[in-house]
């Protein structure tokens, strides 16, 4: 049923998804909400309280789930003309929140009656926080038909000059590779859907199949797997008797979905989190509405098998058998062909696909019992750490193994143990070539790790003797190309069935039966529990791989699927005709094409043979065309496609999910931060860093490197660091042939030499041995990282990257190699660099640094700056800016400080032109360049290069503390090796303990506050009362927020509405306006107690200025100072003044501002009618003197003119208006007597008078006395100021 999509723009932009009975409302949250919200509402978080600055800009959203009858739809309008059939979730791009909805989907499969599968053909993104993108993507992504083997970028359909930020995401999701179901859990195979095993003695299965070989292996592996495998508890495995396995076919639970195959997990995570906080009934109603859509990526299709293709006797009309193929692509290490290879530290491999073949016969026998068959197999990249670079020529696509055997084994074991827990025994079918160098090396490493896996070496010799040749993990080497070279071609691949038949018989398949009667098989199966049971479970799985796990793998998996179906038909007495096998081959060919387009960009090679069973010339030409298309797509398209996949899965650095705030959850977050020591701790590790420019020499490989790698004077902790980082420069001679390519042979020799020196020292000092974690090389620069064997489990997400800077980024003679990792929960990055040479090329070296720092990228957009600690090491080539003779003399004298003051790197760092925010320890060793090889003499050749500290180690990070910095006396190069040791503080977080503590706090807090009710219309929308605010320091008030201000009484809300206690009450006018003054009266009084308002007369307004200018006798004199009366403020209510009669108040006397107040006032000149006095903006004394209140206020001083007219003694001759008040007048008006005049005993000297504060001093000029008067000095006589 389609979902009605509506939008409302006011007061906050909201999107409503309406079904027949319920509605899901999503509302933009620019600030804290202040609207009526139901108890099923999630509020936007106030993230300013958090300590993480990166979360301050996380988009916020409010969501609520309501019954449709309780929703007011006024103001809502249709959002789009396109239908909506599901919701994939929310995603943020450039701080905009987008809702992704499915607009077009078609049913392509029916696994069982009532279990439909839909393929997504179109999606749309609607912006939640602004209307700029409304109807932007209403047109189709591309309405034209495209080549099925091409990856259409769809840019032709964009509006000119504009691009929707979700265009690439929409194209990816609309590509026909995503599927969903409303009826069942599509992420799990049929065998894993809520299976309950019930032993039985009276049930007779259709057939029984047991394998002592696999059964004993499963029992023996129990101690290794921890007894958690459901296969270990199957009763018939131990008793070898039948059992009944009932299948719970009730409503599926979203929480049971397999996250490995849930491709929209990042987008739908906020909605699922909101769902988890609902009650059980509300959660059921939300699931029944089908608003939330969970998708997989891969291939799903069903074909109907007519009754004529089977020979099973009489059948009910209209109930045909269905053949379904379901391929689920894992999203854990998703990506494109050359951007996603090998394995990660969690054991997830690239291009991991689970393919399930399902046959459902709704009328198996005369009683209309249904019979279901399921057979699963998997494929995936070789589970070791390897990479492959793109190239336009096949020989350029070299395979590089990035970790040693010892460092690979832990992740390898994780991979296969996770498969064993889910599928049981594993049989690896390796189709790689045994003659090609890269593939042969991968096969050798795979065989080595399988031999050392705990699934094959089961503890003691006694246990191994009992097992014999049995194992949960075995491998078959099958060189596909070598086996199919003969005249039979690809048909010879079917011979593999003879090799793997024993394991195929041992693994079996999943078989289930339904005893339901009647003809309602086409009805929905939801709710049926008692009628279905499993007869047999699949006990093992085939894991097939080639290099890409596409073409060869798909062909062989089709053969394995056919073997399983034939076994099923043999046991059940069925017989499918030739037409059935043609349809089976067609399904597998379509499956191969679909998976190949996802990973490589084109359809699968050899698909024509898979489809028809024959090789043809047309098929060969098609394969050649696909191979050429792959080269173009892998080199020029896949990077953008990989970035889109990373955005969809939320893996880019700095990408934040939409935040749906729950007040209780915010309390949990704050509480977890306080109780961090309960689930996390910090510990110190030691890191050794060494750099050495080898000058292309190999003579020192067999020398004793311990004096450089293990200096004897270091402390024991520094001698046995957890990490050893070694950087080499000029590991090969930088010839014109070498600078364009990388030869790893020389690097591998030095890897073994360094490892030999480290382990020899460890054995001599009873320390732990080291293993090579990863190595990287760029022509002559190489970076090697070793780790203690005991610490290998704490290192994760190791990645490498290169950056060329030679010849403007074309050549690799100069550049950098970087390796990043996560040690526990701390991000570390190491960079070795070889910068531009030359004494005066320091600016070019600065450019090289900037190119590396800003251009070097790891996966998912990580940069060097995105780490907690960064260490740069290498030959930076910065020189000392002093003459050669002086430098050598200072070195002899040991005056290293003078040399360091002229060091180019030091000067560039001080000026901020290179390595900003990095630090270097004090240099206590002589310059390391350039020596005569084999001696301690500096360069004596004709060039006589100036000695310099070219080899350096720099650090950045608050958790780093440098312990030592020195050079070693190795003389087989013209450089001296440099080393440094560091102490690094790393954070270790126990995620399981953190999750457990989080659940406990949430459960307890939810029980305390119950369901949070949203704020009312007249209440604050903030939920601060649920949060625990504490002062950051004793004695300080708690922090404030939008709804809580510490400077108010007892944390009262800042926003409030003042209402009288009744209709007959009013504010008390006698209460002081200052809220900080303690008041004795009440805030409200009865209106009858208010003073009589009849006698109140407002003061008359002042006369117009032009009248005052004509009638005032003191227009040109000093204005009467105004009286300051307290007026109403914004924070306090306006108060009524007491009744008074303004006529009874005498006018305030004037006050003189001259130095001699005893002089009589001069005569007042007559008023003038100059333009200045007629200026309506000129303030007159009467305008500046409002009516007096009952209580006299201190008068304001007179207005100071903008510029004084006279600055000389002549100004003393100009008298100011007298502002004296006689004693009789003071008594008449009740004014206090002035204090006695203070007389100075010093002789009176003539001083220049201060200019008067108001009015013009030269009345004859006709100037006005206002601030707006134009007195820029056109007619003012200026007199020089003379000293007294």
UniProtKB/TrEMBL annotation:
Residues 1067-1081, 1177-1187 have a biased composition (Polar residues). Keywords: Cytoplasm, Hydrolase, Protein transport, Transport. This is phosphoinositide 5-phosphatase. It comes from Tuber aestivum (summer truffle). It is found in: Cytoplasm. One of its GO terms (cellular component) is cytoplasm. Pfam families: Exo_endo_phos2, Syja_N. Its main location: cytoplasm. Residues 1009-1284 are annotated as: Disordered. Residues 1016-1028 have a biased composition (Basic and acidic residues). Residues 169-601 form the SAC domain. It comes from the Eukaryota. In the central section; belongs to the inositol 1,4,5-trisphosphate 5-phosphatase family. Belongs to the synaptojanin family. Transmembrane segments: none annotated. GO terms for molecular function: phosphatidylinositol-3,5-bisphosphate 5-phosphatase activity; phosphatidylinositol-4,5-bisphosphate 5-phosphatase activity. Its EC number is 3.1.3.36. GO terms for biological process: phosphatidylinositol dephosphorylation; protein transport.
